[in-house]
Each structure stands twice: as C-alpha cells, then as structure tokens.
Amino acid sequence: MDSDLRRARSHCRPLLISTRMRRAKLVLGIAALIIAMVFGAMVPSGFATAYETELSSTNQYQLEQHHTTAALAALDAEQTHNDGPATEGNWGGVDWTYNTRSKVLSIAPKKDATLVDNDGPFLTADDAELATKMDMRTVRFMHKVTITDASQLAYMFEGACSLNVVENLWRIQLSEISATQPLDLTSMFAYTAELHTDFARWKIGNRRIIAREMFRGSHANTFEYFHLPWGNIEDAYYMFAEMPNLLYIDFDSQLSESNFGVRNAEGMFYGCTALEQVIWNMSASNMINMNEMFKYCFSLLSVDFLSTQGSQQQSMTGMFEGCHHLQEVNFQDLPITPASMQVGSMFLDDNDVRAMTMSIATLRYLYDQNYHNPYDPSWALPCMDNAESLWTAKGQSRSWKQWMEDTALEDTEILTFTRVL
C-alpha cells in the first residue's frame, strides 16, 4: 500500500459513510449511547441535576465528541480498506481519473458530461473509491458537468481528509434544475483538509442554497477568497461547526451583496474552538434560529452584529454557552425583544464578558427572562450568578437590576455597558 495513503488513513477520522443506511445507523448508534448514558447509570434522581450542573462545558463538549467518534469508529470498522486507490471510474455517467503520484483527481477529463444515475455520494461505491477519496489532494473539473437533481452534490467531498483544493467549480452546470428548487450542498466539503476553493464564477443565479454542515470539520482556516454566495444561503445549520483552524471571519469583506438570506443559523460555528472574532456586517432580516450558534467556541473574544437588522429571530438558546473567553458582544443592530424569543443559557459559563452594547429594551427583556424562575436563572445575561457585579455606562456603575429599573431610560436608547473588574 502507498506510504502516503497509509499516513492519510492514520490521520483521517473515520467519516467515510457511503450510504444512507450507514448514516441512519450512525444516528441510532449515537442515540443509543446517549440513552445508555442518561438511563443506564444507577444515579439517584436527587443527584442527577446537581451532577449535570457541575459538569463543565469543556468536559461536556469533549464527552459529546468522544461518543460521536466512538460511534463513527464502530461503523467504519466494517470497512477493511485493504484496496489501494482506484485510478479511474464513472459516477452516474461522469468519468473521472486519479493520478496517485500527483494526488490529482480529474472529473470529466475528456469531455462534457451529465450526471444522471448516481446512486450515492461521490467516491463511495467500494473500498478502492474510498481509498481514492481519502488520498486525493486536488480535484479538477476539466469539462462541464451538468447535474440533473438539486441534491446530487450533497456529501460529494465529505471525508476527503487530504483534500486541499477544488478547482473550477464554475464548470458545474445547473441548467437542468428548476430555478425554484433549492441547491443542496449539505456536507459537500465536510471533514476536508486545509481547503481552498472559489465560488466566484459559478452561475448559481437566484437559487436558494441548503448549506447544512457544508464545511463541518474542515481544516480550512479562512473563507476570505471563497466568494461564498451568502445572499443565496437559506439554511446554515452547523455550516462551519467544529472547524479547528478557523480563527476569524469578517462577512463584510466577502460580500458582493449586503443581505444574508439565511433563516436557520443553528450551530453555525458550534465547536470552532480556535475562533476568536466574528464581524457580522450584513443584513440578516430573515434569520429565525440562532440556537447554539457559537456554543463551545472556547477562544471566542468578540462578536459584532453590525447592520444585522434582524427582526424575526425567535430563538437564541445556548448561543454563547461555554464561550469562556468571550469579552465583547455588540447587539446594537440585533434587537432582542419579541415575546416569542427563547434565550435560555445564552451566556451560560460566560463570566469573562467585559462589554455589551445593546438597547435598553433588549437589556430589560433579557433581565426579565432570567427571573421567570428565580431558582433557575436562564443565563440570558452574563454574570447573573453575581448580584454585585457592576456595569458602567453614562458615567455610572450599576448592577443589571439597577439599570433595568431606571425609568428615565428610553427603550430605544443604546448603551455600551462595561463591567467593573
């Protein structure tokens, strides 16, 4: 077996699950582990809540990762991977070739092609194809490839753990797909290496994009030159989750349009443990779900929702939970006031926050949410476990309660509150 392939396999996570049956088994396996953990341990009920409370968010995240990895490893054990990489093949009518020396895979190497009969994600038909998927470093679309179903690109490069470059995405043709049908790019680049690609010339038009877990687990460290079509993205569920190298993202520097079409941003940056700063300088007026958006981003220092102008968001549960180093949050352009808003655990374990910018209406709403149940605060504001914590604004230092009760302040007034250390 090629030594490079051995090294690739030894470092790749076992995430090459080639059929929907395997995905279903994965879900069932994880569910079984969780059920066993919750119900199997003989813990007296009176101690259960206390135990869960004491479990740190860091350990909780590691525990979740352990269970997920164990379930995936058990499934992958069924694959022997004894074959070397395949050097040619056909995927639903589209030829491809692979050079084991250059690690370059060429799609449609000789002529234009149409993808019609694919019966599963790319390079998952057998062990030899899986070996190719794990070994390849560059993918080139040499000629036009016309897809005939909006879901044919989902999971295409998932688990290609050595893949660094995908060239000529613009050669993927969408002319056979209805413009009203969402383009499904679910997990398309999940668990790849330090990836680089460019969407700039890809003629997507006004099609909506499903980007669920699109880059989850990828080792890419920036999206500065990807030219992602943000205005088309409707579903960003765990889109960038668990990317270990992502340090910084500034949406404003990448936008050709000012509006982000996303409705679902749940877990969008979940578990990006190296992420330090997010600047969100674009409108997201349709955004509804922001649950766990930055959960377990242990290195996150600041989030600035500039120009967000959100008005439909309904849930921010656990949004910053476990962000131990979070220092600054700007909610100036993200009003948080509707009665339907869920904000439980939004700042759980976030006692390092030093500055918050928000309207008085937002402050009053978040404070009120903490005290629906005085024995179980919802952690909708940071430092709620310390009633003596003071916050300075307008030259005065007060507790959250004192600021909230000041009737001289108008709901529309926006202040930056700095914590007294």
From TrEMBL:
**Could you tell me the superkingdom of the organism this chain comes from?**
Bacteria
Q: Which InterPro entries does the record cross-reference, listed alphabetically?
A: DUF285 (IPR005046), LRR_dom_sf (IPR032675)
A Pfam family hit: DUF285
Q: What is this protein called?
A: BspA family leucine-rich repeat surface protein
Which species? Bifidobacterium dolichotidis
